[in-house]
Amino acid sequence: xxxxxxxxxxxxxxxxxxxxxLEPIHVHVAKGKPTSNATKIWITKAGKCLLCNNDSKIPSKxxxxxxxxxEARNNEVVDK
Length: 80
Description:
By secondary structure, this protein is an alpha+beta fold. It is 25% helix and 31% strand. The protein has one helix at residues 60-79, and strands at 3-7, 10-13, 26-31, 39-43, 49-53.
């Protein structure tokens, strides 16, 4: 489980080769350490975030901020 980065106490990470068939590109978000009921955020080709589920029950305002940070980090990578 590679950790991409942390935002406060939230881990942003992914599992390689997850599910069959493979899902769209996405990351998981969990407070503390990775869990099986983590929030899942899909990443569009344009670098935008789409909420798949909020299974870890991250508060709405916090989740919006996390998604904005993920989008900003995606744009940094795309612009380079």
